[in-house]
Inverse folding.
């Protein structure tokens, strides 16, 4: 069985998730298409890098990502760093002929994403963007229903991603609130996951009409450099503050190329919503509803059920649903965040092993950046913005 | 105790609901502000009118609404007829000095609504539009929380009204699908309830940006004249069809005068959603969620709850919440459609008895028509439309 | 259309509910089998009785229930008084040849219930016990599924009735906590509703094995004589207390004559449960779940659904489900407590008009008293108790 | 950092789960108390063992569990084999001085469990029984609430474990339906998890009163020897069948030493329930509800909340709740089955490193076997059975 050496750039929260997936993927999907080997992890200083290797099970560590990218032993580069570093690393990795998986959003904007896409196409390597949520088995089941025609032609899509970890004005000004590092705010961080759902499940988005708001205009400056999401204690009132220059909330209407319409909303100011990533899809013959907070479940209603027994079914994913053969032996044993990453890793290594296209890839990442840019432009201008369709989005 | 004679124009589904409220209101709210007496009911022919009187408990019946409107014994005119007849009846009733409750939407459009408003203002009578859903105790509780500052300044509002009773292309072309009778489709029929929620709970809507769609372009012509909503059997394929000229679905973004933003969606093509009238409100200090399908409950999250016990509370309305003294003695004994109408009747008769303003009244009805017209204009033009604020909306 | 004069003994909370049903029944079910006419209401003193008549829409009032029971104009006696008075009134009414509807539980125990049953049988009148919850449309739908074989042979039943209105030790010692008036505590007040569900949906209960507990051994003595359930403010610590001599909680295992098994739990000490009347039924071919707090819904799972679309369906009752023709025109418009009483009234007046048996009747009420007595005996002895089957339970 | 070598006996579904936990634990809990090293895995034949090593990341494999148990390099023996083999392996491992984690239920009955307990006590090794569900963060949060007195004295407990993977009469006769291998049926397989919850959250169980049923008396003989739970396709009607000699369903009433009462139900014949492991706990000052199918959530109601904002809170576990520092950075990112095993591994390796007691250990496993034996005895005799308290249950 083929082994592929991974060089992972970044050792934070996402590094943990990816490492678990590298360790666990063959346990779930066996025979594995290829065995991921945790070869080298990179972090910003010696101590962090050494610690990350020990913690995450990598054989080696480094503080020099360029060296790792160019290490001939490495087959796959995994980019789990802040958004502003993705392009440089990915382009270098492509030039070095490495397959690449890059955290989302792909880039700080469409222009940068286009360069990355051109680099991987020129290099002929496999490329993946880590919109892992579409790999939740319940989301994959929704995709299957739609492809099988079980809810008919899709009419409308309503997607949300609501969180509250930064709803407190005293939560720190991490890199996620700084445009130069993050590119955008709720839009890029979480809204793009909904855009990925919309494209995956419904079709290409052609037009957007959006509003953005920054509800908390300034936040306490973060002293430690590390992104800790909601785990950081709120700053005291004495801590100096600086301006937030990205969106806290984005709302957009969307039009799809197949005639469907919809809305997307992403906010980090929704008290009580933790990871409320949802979609509701109305088709001519049925409806779907999904909420990641209850991710083992897909709700589906079929129009042709008898009138006295019609209603949303709560289907728990398991052995009979997508990826079920490899996962847990009965439904509701429990899909966690880890499992979404394990499935993502499986599909990526399968694509590498079988020389097929992984999706979502840099094509998709680029298209999503185009959509995100259009959303920001629309919000600024207060009008509909049309999106250039640049690439056939593999699904 | 004062008795007020009601003349009810229309004896269909809404007539049933209002009649139950007239009978039941004093049973729940005692001493009643005034006793509604079911004096005369009007329907389109002798048989229907006679039947309605017997069924709904009216002393008299008539086929001549003008006679009833001008009957000196009548104190209150209740208009429960299709939308296109509201204006003529209401204006005549106002001229005759009667208090008026009119089903929603108030009119076929803002122009007509304005005439109605001017008529009632000139006459000095009490006027009410029957957006009864805001009288669900859980909605009134949401209002109370907001007024008491318990969720802080409102940032965003997301409201939906999703149904499926006409999602079948063979469901008949009732008056609700004809512009000349209904004025608009999902927008006027159900979307205006969400607009009423938005204005009641958040504030005045200043701008809209909308899309509408007619998913089912033609429907079987209805032979019987009566509106039966979902109870009508689907037509066979042999029945001749005619065009639908109103919207099946409307989506709009909204801006409020206090800086909040939001979305409203109404559709009758959402399989599995029966009466899915919902709102989610995010404030600086908390959030609210309501779904009329589970109308005994309000979900509320308070930001200042301890971190290990924070989350949406499911509060069942009862004696401790608004209108609770008059309703059932313990929570979850059961609020149905009837109770919303009983509360509406209570508030209206109290306003009459105490000579105060009922809300929502024709001011509100007119403002909602302005918003609805702006939504249609926005959908047609594909751009933001600003709404003239014409009246101080009593709440 | 035939009119039947009702004499209602009692003007409290249940009197309100029944009065609404008398007024509303023909509005919903038309042509009505017979028109209930609110003839005379009885209460304990002149002022209360007069007030009740005005409030509840009765033509006359009285403080002398015997006179009303013997009034030749009266056709139906409705008993909505505390449990200890049921027998005397019902037996007198039977002797006077009146049809009878009596609130639950039928009596203070089986012996008393037997006398009542014998009286109505001797008199040949119609008799009903007001276990109204089985008339929730979703419960009637469950019954239909079971009768149609859609979940196969029933294996197990789990029913609960959980409340919290008296979970506070300072809530007053109303008649519901006094054995001489109530007969038993949670068992009679709410547990019998679950017993009614069990018999209605599964079959006759043959054996019970129970535990009871009185969690709050004494409560503040109530100064006003009226039963107010949860609306009464907690007594202060100064109020003298007296002993509670009934159960706060009862748990029982049950065996059915058809081989099914189950559990029943009733408690008034379940903080956060308001009217949590539920059942879960497992059959060979499917399952059912119902929770009255969300009473518009029945959950049903069919074993023969395809493996990738199997799960509980949330069916909202409406026009396509039992009683739907008469109720509201679309699902989820809203079933409240009132509707359950309206349906009960419809079925009772239909039984009177058509001279058929209403169910649950005094046979059922007696059988339920036998079961309740057996539960108390079992709890005391700590062993299984077999229940004599005394009558064919009409369903 | 100390490394502990694990010898795992068994390479099936549970082996996968444990292996993921060995790989992932240090990624989540860092610095780890000790690093689990996957040293050797044992399976029934060379091919399976070799495959398991490759798949699950063990350095070595073997078909000789005795050799592994006695391998001086091994520190911890992990027993993930069918129930009938636990005792022999565990006793041998104890004699060899190895720390032991054994899958639940501990043994085929109390007698066997007692021998195992005596062996580990004599050897002075650490011992654990893998009732992993109590390590769901939401269950640990429930424990914390109770210990902190936030719901007051516990009055009643209602626990269920409902599944449907073997509700089909054609699902195969795996070892789980054979008494000589499994000891009991639903009781041992899933009911003991509820017993573990009851003891963990409420206190020691002193008395039980139970019923058991075998709903499907015979099942198709399984040709492959491997336990696949629900993944096995239903047998055809041609396959020969053999008798099931264990329970499909068990219901028991329980009494606790602190005065609380309750019920426990476990069944594998509940269509639509997949892994419906729930508890509801009523205390004097609040209530708790947990459903593993929605395991990120704990429902809690506090009696002292204001009357207009009282109700169950849906708390999503995360950084602010037990184990939160080590898990995912925001609530609802997703707890799966894997995380429960990762936490279990963390606590076990911490107990080993710090020389403290792990719980639940063989004391608990033995006590649970006593309770399970009492349940079977009670079901057979039809009466209450008292349980000897044999050991102080560490919690």
């Amino acid at each position: 069985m083929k082994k592929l050496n991974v060089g992972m750039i970044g050792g934070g929260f996402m590094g943990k998730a990816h490492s678990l997936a590298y360790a666990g993927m063959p346990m779930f999907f066996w025979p594995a298409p290829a065995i991921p080997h945790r070869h080298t992890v990179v972090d910003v200083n010696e101590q962090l890098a050494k610690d990350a290797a020990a913690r995450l099970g990598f054989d080696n560590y480094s503080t020099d990502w360029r060296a790792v990218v160019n290490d001939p032993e490495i087959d796959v580069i995994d980019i789990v760093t802040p958004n502003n570093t993705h392009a440089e690393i990915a382009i270098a990795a492509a030039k070095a002929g490495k397959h690449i998986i890059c955290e989302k959003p792909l880039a700080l904007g469409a222009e940068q994403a286009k360069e990355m896409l051109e680099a991987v196409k020129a290099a002929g390597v496999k490329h993946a963007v880590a919109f892992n949520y579409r790999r939740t088995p319940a989301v994959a089941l929704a995709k299957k229903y739609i492809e099988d025609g079980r809810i008919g032609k899709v009419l409308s899509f309503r997607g949300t991603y609501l969180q509250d970890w930064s709803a407190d004005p005293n939560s720190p000004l991490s890199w996620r609130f700084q445009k130069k590092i993050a590119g955008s705010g709720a839009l890029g961080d979480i809204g793009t996951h909904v855009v990925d759902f919309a494209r995956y499940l419904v079709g290409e988005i052609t037009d957007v009409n959006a509003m953005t708001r920054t509800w908390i205009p300034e936040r306490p400056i973060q002293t430690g450099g590390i992104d800790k999401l909601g785990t950081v204690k709120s700053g005291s009132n004495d801590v100096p503050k600086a301006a937030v220059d990205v969106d806290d909330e984005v709302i957009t209407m969307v039009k799809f190329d197949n005639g469907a319409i919809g809305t997307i909303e992403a906010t980090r100011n929704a008290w009580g919503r933790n990871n409320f990533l949802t979609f509701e899809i109305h088709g001519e013959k049925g409806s779907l509803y999904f909420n990641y907070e209850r991710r083992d479940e897909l709700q589906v209603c079929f129009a042709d059920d008898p009138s006295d027994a019609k209603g949303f079914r709560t289907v728990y994913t398991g052995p009979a649903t997508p990826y079920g053969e490899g996962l847990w032996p009965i439904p509701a044993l429990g899909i966690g965040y880890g499992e979404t990453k394990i499935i993502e890793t499986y599909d990526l290594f399968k694509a590498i092993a079988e020389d097929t296209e992984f999706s979502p890839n840099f094509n998709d990442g680029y298209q999503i950046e185009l959509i995100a840019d259009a959303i920001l432009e629309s919000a600024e201008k207060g009008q509909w913005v049309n999106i250039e369709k640049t690439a056939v989005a593999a699904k």
Summary: The interface with chain C takes residues 141, 144-145, 150, 297, 300, 302, 305, 307-316, 320-321 of chain A (CB under 8 Å). Residues 210 and 381 of chain A are 9 Å apart (CA to CA).
